[in-house]
Amino acid sequence: MTSSEGDxxxxxxxxxxxxxVGFSYLNExxxxxxxxxxxxxxxxxxxxxxxxxxxxxxxxxxxxxxFFLVNxxxxxxxxxxxxxxxxxxxxxxxxxxxxxxACAAGTYVNALMGLTECWLLAAMAYDRYVAxxxxxHYTTIMSGRACALLAGxxxxxxxxxxxxxxxxxxxxxxxxxxCILHFFCDAPPLLKMxxxxxxxxxAVGRMVAVLFNLGPFLLILLSYIRIISTILKLPSAEGRxxxxxxxxxxxxxxxxxxxxxxxxxxxxxxxxxxxxxxLISLLNIIVSPVLNPIIYxxxxxxxxxxxxxxxxxxxxxxxxxx
Length: 322
Hints:
Layout: E1 3-5, E2 13-15, E3 17-20, H1 29-57, H2 64-81, H3 84-92, E4 97-99, H4 100-133, H5 138-141, H6 144-169, E5 179-180, H7 187-193, H8 199-232, H9 237-266, H10 274-298, H11 301-321
Parallel strand pairs: 3-5
Antiparallel strand pairs: 1-2, 3-4
């Protein structure tokens, strides 16, 4: 263990390098987990990059909803990349060490992207609300400037909260054992290792979770209450079906994102094992980023149409050159 002597009473030492215990208990199965996670990570990168490129190349997708989807895909790439590459490297080596600087960077990016995604999903819900409940004023309300402000505010919310909380967390002294019983630097296990009073930062963390995680969720919920109320008043069944279909992809993404997050962070731990906690956290890290592009590609007619046209253009261009 790498550490330095501190003034925290007696022979306590200040930790400056952590060991991420992670999935060490799997022994030889770590190689199998490496292969599975590598495949999922590559699919996540390719899927989200495909969504971004497709929207950029398709004029028919240059609408507010897909502008927010580009931001969402970018945040998903950063979110999963803040954890998975480090995890993949540690699955192949015996010494799973990480410096405090790298730990802080990973914790910050993870928190930033999680907070940003919450607000981006709320902005997308607001976009669907305006489109269905105020269709005649849609282009005026969801102007390019308004979309840029909503997306910018989503990223700013993550930065403004993530920076001070992260700086506060890593200003605490860590002493004793430097083993983190996790596969990435998450706030809860780090707070357990701090040899200082953490009651204040825990209280602020809970407040942030309510305001910046559950707050957007409540906005999404209110938007969909209004959306469903408006849709049910439509006279034709076909009109109701089309209106519901425009919300299906976003609603599915919200369900997956908040479902995995709630299981990971908000369900009380009642005797569950460390191994099950790790698997639940892993699902939170990999499920939403890899499913989002699949949901928007397979369940969205506009995206499928744009993908078909792009592939046809590429095929025609290749055939013409040959």
